[in-house]
Amino acid sequence: MSHPLYAEDPEPAEPVPAGLLYVPVRSGPAGCTARLFRTPLGGRTAVGFTSPQRLAAVLGSGQPWVRLSEAALRALAEPVGARALTVDPGFVPETPRSRGHHLRAV
Questions:
Q1: Residue 38: how many CA atoms within 13 Å on its side-chain side?
Q2: Which of 9, 58, 77, 86 is most buried by its number of CB atoms within 10 A?
Q3: With the CA atoms of 98, 99, 101 and 106 taken in that order, what torsion angle do they form, in degrees rounded to the nearest 10?
Q4: 24 backbone dihedrals φ, ψ, rounded to 5°
Q5: Is the pLDDT of residue 97 over 60?
């Protein structure tokens, strides 16, 4: 078996796109908006889950969600300062403002 020779080292592997994600949302003046969270160091991050079961395990079964591609979620989050994307976080602390607040589907 022969291996091709490269003049340069190959580029490091690109991260695999997450595909369609289940994104937690909240109602806003213009309809649904993606919920943003804070990283342990205080930075803003968009959050997506690979299944509705994973989303419910972390945020509860009453958390509304929409399906978005990774690219669409990044495009929504970056203008408001959330340049990071966290997929399937193990724990997302609830903010005091959102406790007991149930959202209606729009």
A1: 6
A2: 77
A3: 40
A4: -65, 140
A5: no
